[in-house]
Amino acid sequence: MTIGSMFGDVFRSLFKKPVTERYPFQRPRIPERLRAKVVWNPENCSGCQLCVKDCPANALELIVVDKASKRFVMRYHADRCIYCAQCIESCRFKCLGFSTEEWELASANKTPFEVLYGRNEDIQFLLERAAQACSEQPDECREVK
Question: Where in the numbering of this chain does the 4Fe-4S ferredoxin-type domain appear (predicted)?
Answer without folding.
Answer: 36-65, 72-101
